[in-house]
Amino acid sequence: MIQDEFNLSKYDFTFPQELIAQEPATKRDNSKLLVIDRKTSSFSKKRFSEITNLFKPGDLLVLNDTKVIKARLKAKRLSGGKVEVFLLKEIQPGVWQVLLKPGKRIKINEKIFFEDSPITATINKTNQQGSWSITFSQKNIEPLISSLGQVPLPPYIKKPLTAETQYQTVYAENQGAVAAPTAGFHFTPKLLNDLKKIGVEIVFITLHCGLGTFRPVKSADIRKHSMHSEWVSLSAEAAEKINAAKLSKRRVIAVGTTSIRTLESVADKSKNHDRLLSPFSGETDFYIYPGYSFKVIDAVITNFHTPCSTNLILISTFAGIDLIKQSYDYAIENRFRFFSFGDSMFII
Predict the structure, then answer these.
(1) Are 81 and 35 in the same domain?
(2) pTM to 2 decimals?
(3) Quick one: average pLDDT of 245-254?
């Protein structure tokens, strides 16, 4: 018998489909904010623009500055058949891990072509979990991505973007993600400046969100789920500032599950007893589920997550599954908007 906290059914929920946000709020910081107090198990409803009132001088805010690439490319086979290439990860210059749709008839060593581009690609091999490895005819495919690529959206968003910037944070800097760190969508340059004015320190980390962020956990026992791997980077400067905040007992507030996973995975790797965090760049498949003890994070700003997702499991581990389920019931009752373009919560 699987313990309740490890049973996938505990992380499933139903909700009205019309609550799935199909576009962002007209003004980013005009979205709703659900404040969850873990000590009192209480909820309060605000506008995101009011979040400055919940910060204190000395708080440290961690943002993920990854930038979404235009990862969807349309191609053709020699036979004329259409193929969609979804870029997942650059393995080495010119060699990418991708998804191919439809992929059933694709053959190893087959060449595919892109309209109005001299660049072609050759299929190398098929990988685990349905992805492929392909080699482009030139190492730098940025011109191809820029001219022909489309920004990928989660499958539950049916409405086309009116501007590519809608699916980027205002501080997006380092290209490489195929999904956005959506908890950051609510911040505006003015709001970030206002936080600095009250004495909040802001640091940036990078985690290039992968397609796995959309894939639900399938294992009945969530501990048996294989976490997807993503590239992360924590600079020496960011590590130093976060270590200093922890030593002086100032709050470290992470924006999004990507920031949480980056910091907690680096802390988990640390062999330095004098410092909690050391600089790190590389892959992580760090998976947070009940039983994990958080080492870095004191509070979290996050969006509402899809049922049975690793993101929901992570947030439930931080705040407690029962409190999170109550908060989702509250959000549904109060008509909060869900998922990537939806509203957010601040868990303190």
Answers:
(1) no
(2) 0.95
(3) 97
